[in-house]
Design brief:
The structure is a single chain. This protein has 6 domains: 60 residues, Helix Hairpins; 230 residues, DNA ligase/mRNA capping enzyme (D-amino Acid Aminotransferase, Chain A, domain 1, 2-Layer Sandwich), CATH 3.30.470; 83 residues, Beta Barrel (OB fold (Dihydrolipoamide Acetyltransferase, E2P)); 71 residues, DNA polymerase, domain 1, CATH 1.10.150; 72 residues, DNA polymerase, domain 1 (Orthogonal Bundle); 87 residues, 3-Layer(aba) Sandwich (Rossmann fold). A hairpin with a 3-residue loop joins strand 16 and strand 17. It starts with a helix and ends with a helix. It contains 29 helices and 27 strands. With 761 residues, it is α/β, with parallel strands linked by helices. It is globular. Strands 12, 13, 14, 16, 17 and 19 form a 6-stranded antiparallel sheet that branches. A 5-stranded mixed sheet has the order 2-11-10-3-9. Strands 5-4-7-8 form a 4-stranded antiparallel sheet.
């Protein structure tokens, strides 16, 4: 064996081992940096030695170039569906059929396992290598999606069994974790796109993508639940088969339960119903099967389902109400979205009066009309949507819902882009579209323009004072002061807020503008990689965006196209002339900080600071904040009512911090910076611990954002308004009404010198 071949084999084995530790056992033993170093070396060696490529190489996890379509393949052993029921009585009847089928005197037991609401897949291994993945299809034939299945990180590309069986076929469920789904929808919403309806449909759509590199980004998972063709594998019960899967390298459900009697099965049904909503994935019931393999085989199957298995399904909560109108909204990208106006109905503990109709093609497919009685459900018990209409209850007064030919806001003819179901208003000056752009631009997570709320945005657009983002920065005192509810102080505060926002930096600006795919996190990361707007404008091709800034091919193409549009370049030129900061400072993390290079998730209500303030503190200490818990999460900062993220973190062994522990780590982060760096970074020990601070006016030595970061890093909580709960007001030039309010309430006021002295103390 050549040196290259030997090194490739070693790297493949090591990477496969670390993948298993990370994605299946949640017990990583090396850093991401070390893993990435080995991965990069493997890719380099395989590129230089294409004859040594292997279908089981970990390098294929990132996906491959797009395919033209999927081939249909025949399953070696038919993939059956399950008989199902929603009634406990039917479970007892199922047990009676099993008893009769086995002769009445044979002893048997059951195994109950969560029924994941995902997409059924069959995986076939030959001599230990994954050679085929296919969807269920009609049970006899399905679509071959091997490239896509290889991107699912907890699917082993090579079995860990010894000896390796000649044929090992496994059936299971591919699914998208709840928080992955929520994060995906958050990114879509930030881009002005419709959210996906539910995790299951999104998983199915992901697996049918022709570009496996895009599938790799979807964060899908796989849990086995059955066997196909097996040669060289012995087991006597489902419990033993689960152990074989575990030894082979699969992640298996920890919630399966052996049930000696049918009464134990019914008890498991009740127990599981009470906790199923706390899981990190969607489940719609329990699969109940005869545990003994020989007895299950003896019972046989119908043309549809095995006789020794049944699915007990929990009914999703639905409601029936009347759809009396449809409101079409125009998003910041111009996309038109139909929304149902409903007679209020109580659903899953909340009153629902609106529901997303997704798009007009969906409305037509479901034949939903104005005036219909409709069935409403919450997708994942989060997003209300219309399941179907009830045509049998129509009285003839109902009217069809048609896609508008003209924008409901500006009357511009609508358009539909090739290959998309969405309908758009192409007019960038459209009032509703502009309102959406401005509201997002001014929002706290974008440019954080104090005083520019939705009502004022509506006034500015309606009065014709603002027709684009740069127009905001050309507003005069006189123009603003004559508007409703805009007195002298509020006008001064808004003008100050606009002036402050110019210095937020490139990352905030990329998130604030309606650029496809660039939300808060990706905007900041792209800004840090590029360093300046000029670097982004100089990258002339999608390939250059992908190579220089480490963006995926789809994102690179869309972002590059946005920057290449003359209209957008003109807008950016105007912002440059207005004095915007169009660069991004490098991260200021200290190498010895406990948060340096760490990934943190924040959940629940914190007693002393907002979640935004906590995020700013983490980032100032060199960490990264994400929205969902995974095996890459290092810390979960949990406040009151943490929800499912806490249970997911505990399940994965993620370190959980309360705010006291968080403050202790922040203190360590400050200490590791050292005296010189503390002076430059504002890193006092805990000078503001437990204090609520408001910052107002213009500071000479730093921006207000930097002042807020330093307060948070020193243990304080930053608030946007002065109240009886305010402990300190940090006051620069042109402080405005907040200073008068603080003085009237007896709040301690610090000028910039006093603020810096306290930071240093």
């Amino acid at each position: 064996m050549s040196d290259a071949a030997a090194e490739i084999e070693r790297l493949r084995a090591e990477l496969a081992h670390h993948n298993h530790l990370y994605y299946v056992l949640a017990q990583p033993v090396i850093s991401d940096f070390e893993y990435d170093r080995m991965f990069k070396r493997l890719v380099e060696l395989e590129a230089a030695n294409p004859h040594l490529q292997s279908a089981s190489s970990p390098s294929l996890r990132v996906g491959a170039p797009p395919v033209e379509g999927f081939q249909t393949v025949e399953h070696a052993k038919r993939m059956l569906s399950l008989d199902n029921t929603y009634r406990r009585e039917d479970v007892l009847e199922f047990d009676e059929r099993v008893r009769k089928g086995l002769g009445g005197s044979t002893h048997y037991t059951y195994f109950a396992d969560p029924k994941i609401d995902g997409v059924a897949l069959g995986l076939r291994y030959e001599n230990g290598e994954l050679v085929l993945a296919a969807t269920r299809g009609d049970g006899v034939r399905g679509d071959e999606i091997t490239l896509n299945a290889r991107t699912i990180r907890n699917v082993p590309l090579r079995l860990k069994l010894d000896p390796v069986p000649p044929v090992f076929e496994i059936r299971g469920e591919a699914y998208m974790p709840k928080e992955t789904f929520e994060a995906l929808n958050a990114r879509r919403t930030a881009r002005g796109e419709d959210p996906y309806m539910n995790p299951r449909n999104t998983t199915a759509g992901s697996l049918k993508l022709l570009d496996s590199r895009e599938v790799a980004k979807r964060g899908l998972r796989f849990i086995p639940h059955g066997a196909g063709e097996l040669i060289g594998v012995d087991y006597s019960s489902y419990r033993e088969l689960v152990e074989v899967w575990r030894q082979a390298g699969f992640e298996v459900s920890p919630l399966g339960k052996h049930c000696p009697t049918i009464e134990d099965v019914l008890a498991a049904v009740s127990e599981f119903e009470a906790v199923r909503h706390e899981l990190s994935y969607e489940v719609d019931g329990l699969v109940v099967r005869v545990d003994e393999a020989e007895l299950l085989e003896r019972l046989g199957h119908t043309s549809h389902h095995p006789r020794g298995m049944i699915a007990y399904k929990y009914a999703a909560e639905q409601g029936i109400t009347k759809l009396y109108d449809v409101e079409v909204t125009v998003g910041k990208t111009g996309q038109l979205t139909p929304n149902a106006r409903l007679e209020p109905v109580l659903l899953a503990g909340t009153t629902v009066s609106r529901a997303n109709l997704h798009n007009f093609d969906e409305v037509a497919r479901k034949d939903i009309r104005k005036g219909d009685y409709v069935v409403v459900e919450k997708a994942g018990e989060i997003i209300p949507y219309v399941v179907r209409s009830l045509p049998e209850r129509r009285d003839g007064s109902e009217t069809p819902i048609t896609a508008p030919l003209r924008c409901p806001s500006c009357d511009t003819p609508t358009l539909r882009r090739e290959g998309e179901v969405a309908i758009y208003c192409p007019n960038v000056a459209c009032g509703d579209r502009l309102r959406g752009v401005l509201r997002h631009f001014a929002s706290r997570r974008a440019m954080d323009i104090e005083g520019l709320g939705e009502k004022l945005v509506d006034q500015l657009v309606s009065e014709g004072l603002v027709r684009s983002v740069p127009d905001l920065y050309r507003l005069s005192f006189e123009q603003l002061n004559r508007l409703e509810r805009m007195g002298k102080k509020s006008t001064e505060n808004l003008l100050q807020g606009l002036a402050d926002s110019k210095q937020r930096g490139l990352g905030k600006l990329l998130n604030a503008l309606p650029i496809p795919h660039l939300g808060e996190t990706m905007g900041r990361e792209l800004a840090q990689r590029a360093g300046s707007l000029d670097a982004l404008l100089a990258a002339g091709t999608a390939e250059e965006f992908e190579r220089r800034f480490k963006l995926g091919p789809v994102v690179s193409a869309d972002v590059c196209a946005w920057f290449a549009t003359p209209q957008h370049r003109t807008l950016l030129g105007e912002l440059r002339e207005l004095g915007f900061k169009l660069s991004e400072d490098a991260p200021r993390a200290a190498g010895g900080s406990p948060f340096a290079g760490k990934t943190v998730v924040i959940t629940g209500t914190l007693p002393r600071r907002s979640r935004d303030a906590a995020q700013a503190a983490v980032e100032a200490a060199g960490g990264k904040v994400t929205g969902s818990v995974s095996r890459k999460t290092d810390y979960l900062l949990a406040g009151a009512k943490p929800g499912s993220k806490l249970s997911k973190a505990q399940e994965l062994g993620v370190a959980v911090l309360d705010e006291d522990a968080f403050d202790a780590l922040l203190a360590q982060a400050t200490a590791t910076v050292g005296p010189a760096a503390q002076a430059s970074e504002g890193g006092a020990s805990q000078a503001f611990a437990g204090l609520t601070v408001v910052v107002t006016g213009t500071l000479e030595s730093m921006s207000r954002d930097e002042a807020k970061d330093r307060i948070v890093a020193a243990g304080g909580k930053v608030s946007g308004s002065v109240s009886k709960n305010t402990d300190l007001l940090v006051c620069g030039e042109k402080a405005g009404s907040k200073l008068a309010k603080a003085e009237s309430l007896g709040v301690t006021v610090l000028d910039e010198a006093g603020f810096l002295a306290k930071l240093g103390g």
